[in-house]
Structures are given as structure tokens and as C-alpha cells.
Amino acid sequence: MTKKQRAALAVEALKKEYPGAVCSLTYTNPLQLLIATRLSAQCTDARVNLVTPALFARFPTLQAFTEGTVEEIEELIHSCGLYKTKARDIFAMCRMLKEEYSGVVPDSIEELTRLPGVGRKTANLVVGDIYHKPAVVTDTHCIRICGKIGLSEGKEPFKVEKQLRSILPPEESNDFCHRLVLHGRAVCTARSPKCELCCMKEFCKYALSMAKTSSKK
After folding, report:
1. Spatial contact of 144 and 184, defined as CB atoms under 8 Å apart
2. Which helix (H) or strand (E) holds 171?
3. How many beta carbons lie within 10 A of that of residue 206, not counting itself?
4. Terminus-to-terminus CA distance in the chain, angstroms?
5. Burial letters for 121-140: b for 16+ Cβ neighbours within 10 Å, e otherwise?
6. What angle do CA 41, 39, 159 make, to 5 degrees?
7. pLDDT tens per residue across all 217 residues of the chain
8. Could you give the CA distance from residue 107 to residue 126 in angstroms, rounded to a whole number?
């Protein structure tokens, strides 16, 4: 079985298991998604969703962010961790959006990654969810699970992204990554993957190897 064939099976299996593939971050516009994703670094989406309502109430627009202060942002995002760096990045990215992009969040990975604190993971999420272009969000769930299935090698996000782009159907890649997050939380957990419950156990390299090992005991 080729990687492309295995990827097609994975796409269909996850689509049946998790038909409603949506981002778990709460937002109402491109700027809010950009900021929420920045806050999610080394922080759970659930925690971010607890913090952003007050943040976006205080700063409802890009203009409001640029007229505020880093210290105000720090106070509101304190519980997300790394709050000083995140607050500085959020303030700087809002100023850059206003000054260089006329307040419009860019629609390409190249332009998005020019913004302070925005890496390829964040850029891919915005490009996929907001602009509906092919995107591959290589977060920890994606890297771990795709490695187990046999779709990718290594743990460097950009390298995994390139590998997945070469085998995933472009129109499916964004939703596929959202479904991997759901699967990683429910079944293929980092500490104890529940292979017996997995919708991909028939073709996942890790699950097949574990089953083979068990049969020999």
C-alpha cells in the first residue's frame, strides 16, 4: 500500500468517525482566529476559549487593539502562559496589520508568517478555515498520529507538512487535520492509544504492529 492510498483510507475513516470537522477555538472573524491561535501555543484550546471572551470584549476591533497597551493584553491573557511574549506579539501583529495590510488579515502563508508570532501552524489554520484554501496544520496531534499511521516521518512540523501535502487530497487536508485533533483526544492519545477502538486500525502501521506483537504472546 502506498502512502497516498493509506492517506485516502485515513481521510475517509476519519470523515465517517468525525463528520463535523471544525476548529475547536471560538472566534467570529479572521483577526480573532489569528489571536486565539497565537494564544494556543503551549496552552489548551479549552483554556484559550475561557480567556478570549473577555479579551475580545475589551478589544472588539483591530483599532481597539492598536489603541490599547501590551500591559492590558497581558492582564487578560495571563492564564494562557507565556503571556508576556504572547501579548507583545498580539500587539505588534495588530499594528502591522493596520500599517501594512490596511487592517485585513492576509490570505497566504507567506504573508501571514511575516506577522509577529505567527508560524506556519497558525498561518495554515487561518488560510484553511478563513480562506478555504488547502492547508495542513501540523500540530502535535497531527505529527504524532500521522507518524503512527505511516503517512509521515519525523517530528519537524514543516517537514511533516510537506510530506502530507504530497499525499493528501488538497480539498480534504484542512478538515483532515481538524479530525486528527478530535481523534487524538478521544482515541489515539499520546500516553495510551486505544488501538482496539480506532477506526484506522485495519491500515495503521502502529496498530497493525501492536496487534502482531499481541498475537505472538
Report:
1. yes
2. none
3. 19
4. 27
5. bbbbbbbbbbeebebbbbbe
6. 35
7. 899 999 999 999 999 999 988 888 999 999 999 999 999 988 889 999 999 999 999 999 999 999 999 999 999 999 998 999 999 999 999 999 999 999 999 999 999 999 999 999 999 999 999 999 999 999 999 999 999 999 999 999 999 999 999 999 999 999 999 999 999 999 999 999 999 999 999 999 999 998 887 766 5
8. 8
pTM for this one? 0.89
User: Looking at 15, 107, 133, 139, which residue is catalytic?
Assistant: 139
45 in active site? no
Residue 121 annotated in active site: yes
Options 86, 121, 148, 201, the catalytic residue: 121
Distance, in Å, from the CA atom of 42 to the CA atom of 30, rounded to the nearest integer, reads 21
Q: Nine-digit cell at 44?
A: 489548551
Q: How far apart are CA 40 and CA 92, in angstroms?
A: 17
Q: What's at 51, amino acid-wise? A: V
Q: What is the DSSP letter of 27?
A: -
Q: Grid coordinates in use for 151?
A: 503517512
Are the C-beta atoms of residues 152 and 160 closer than 8 Å to each other? yes
